[in-house]
Amino acid sequence: MLHRLAPGEPLGLLALLGGGVLALGFCVAAAAGIGDFNIPLRTVFLAVTNNLDLTAAPLDRIEESVVWNLRLSRALVAALCGAGLAICGAILQSLLRNPLAEPFVLGVSAGASTGAVAVIVLGIGAGAVSLSFGAFAGAFAAFGFVALLSNGTVSGPNQTILAGVAASQLFNALTSYIVMTSANAQQARDVMFWLLGSFGGVRWPEFQLLLAVIALSLVVCIWYARTLDAFAFGDEEAASMGVSVGRVRIVLFGVTALMTATIVSMVGAIGFVGLVVPHVARFLVGPLHLRLLPACVVLGAVFMVTADIVSRVILPQQTLPIGVVTALVGVPFFSVLLYRARNRM
Amino acid sequence: MSVVAESLSWQAGGRQILQDVSLRAEPGETLGLIGPNGSGKSSLLRLLAGLRRPGAGRVEIDGQDIARLSRRDMALRVALVQQQSTTEANVTARDVVRLGRTPHRGALAGWTAADEEAVAQALAGVGMQHAATRIWRTLSGGERQRIQIARALAQKPSVLFLDEPTNHLDIEHQIAILRLVRDLRLTSVVALHDLNHAATFCDRIVVLQKGRHIAAGTPDEVLTEDMLARVFSVAGRVRPSPYRPGPEIHFLVDAPEA
């Protein structure tokens, strides 16, 4: 069923990406239709075209509003989050030459959470902009902490992972401390749900901001795709092939922190996507980044939208935290891949 | 292009790795770098390739101070093959050789006929055309070494730095690689352990000991019984080779210390 495309097989890649985009469209449509009450796909389609002023079909006002204002924006935000986290994982894994690297493992998500929680609970400023700013400051603080502990580029990739584990612990502890000492009961409930990840409450404004951030970041990452290939043998080899290693690391770490901070500030810390999707993508299209990054975008988006549908329907009248679903769906899938990969060697 | 190093010094971890080392490689020359383990050969190659900034001294490639060259301009002139560089990525041998084209390509530029030809030539040069589609992980140590050299050749450099390129290779491929390097007539600086290889393939040799420059000259001038005893702590007899120009070294392993 799954096979690795041979290098230099652009048609295969296009077919895969085309298929992925179709699958994504279907998933988003399904996400807009499925919920506490199901809405037929035809109504979903007409609701979208109505709101784009392409049609003026007479629809149930409530159904139309649910599709457009609640579910569609939520599904598209989920797609962007999945795509963004998958790109972050692919880039960190390549730059650090470590298959475990991703924003969650490196403590960047934890740092962003701490920053956002500090804003929510301690009330530093108010409104979405300062929440994002808090997450942003936290993400960069975590990155700085990891960079400092792992001593920049000199020490090996493993030390960076250890520093990331330390950063996760530190920032999670800080978050708990802030919640335990300063939050009232309602704030604590909000914070806890949001720490496990939730797409509840995201609407079109979040989508627009996220779209701008992810699109910009993707352009930067595609620009550096060839450069990332040159890191396969390490920083020194990359440098000897003409890569300005220091500048590339700063730019790409910065872009990764930007994406992570934006995502965490909106939907909380969602693990596993950044770890697993790049591995699945590599398995399908190989390790070269000009193919890998687009594959990560499509696969990450499909995975996250599907996980969000599952989180909404698996328990009647309740929504599971998205992080629970990504792990429950992702781990068995990943196990099968690992098992198959072992058999092929 | 010529390579000139003037009084290079370099410290790492509070230890003086290189102290006042100078050398000169003329255009087209193959310069051997010999010395015991830890004498600073690899560090010197890193300084020459511009991967490390020297604490003192300077390196010139073709008369230009490399501190003023961008990384990319440097990579268009100079290629480096380090010891035992490896990857976990699932890349093919050809993917690795293609990396050598990195400095020649823009961020989004397509793959050109010149790129393809450089890769094909490089693979043929190290005799690895047949293995181009194999996955890196499945290659033997010697095959990996040859692919790394092909990667450096695909870079189309004028200057080649090689750090013990014959490690892991059987004798046939040791000779094939060193002949290739000599016959390319690039300016090459090659760190070598095998002194007879140095005598066979190098135009001139530089001897390092504990980070200091000990001697430099033709193989006949440098490879002496006295030097073997002083620098390498072994007893040996050096005779002119009856089969080729240059000296030939025999080690006296059971003799009392010379």
From TrEMBL, chain A:
The keyword Cell membrane applies. Pfam families: FecCD (PF01032). The chain crosses the membrane at residues 12-34, 75-92, 104-124, 131-149, 161-183, 204-225, 250-280, 292-314, 320-339. InterPro entries: ABC_BtuC-like, ABC_transptr_permease_BtuC. One of its GO terms (biological process) is siderophore-iron import into cell. It comes from the Bacteria. GO terms for cellular component: plasma membrane. It is found in: Cell membrane. GO terms for molecular function: transmembrane transporter activity. The keyword Plastid does not apply. Belongs to the binding-protein-dependent transport system permease family. FecCD subfamily. This is Iron complex transport system permease protein. It comes from Pseudoroseicyclus aestuarii. The lineage of its organism: Bacteria, Pseudomonadati, Pseudomonadota, Alphaproteobacteria, Rhodobacterales.
TrEMBL record, chain B:
Residues 3-235 form the ABC transporter domain. It comes from the Bacteria. GO terms for molecular function: ATP binding; ATP hydrolysis activity. PROSITE patterns: ABC_TRANSPORTER_1, ABC_TRANSPORTER_2. InterPro entries: AAA+_ATPase (IPR003593), ABC_transporter-like_ATP-bd (IPR003439), ABC_transporter-like_CS (IPR017871), P-loop_NTPase (IPR027417). Keywords: ATP-binding, Nucleotide-binding, Transport. SMART domains: AAA. Belongs to the ABC transporter superfamily. PANTHER family: ABC TRANSPORTER ATP-BINDING PROTEIN, HEMIN IMPORT ATP-BINDING PROTEIN HMUV. This is Iron complex transport system ATP-binding protein. It comes from Pseudoroseicyclus aestuarii. The lineage of its organism: Bacteria, Pseudomonadati, Pseudomonadota, Alphaproteobacteria, Rhodobacterales.
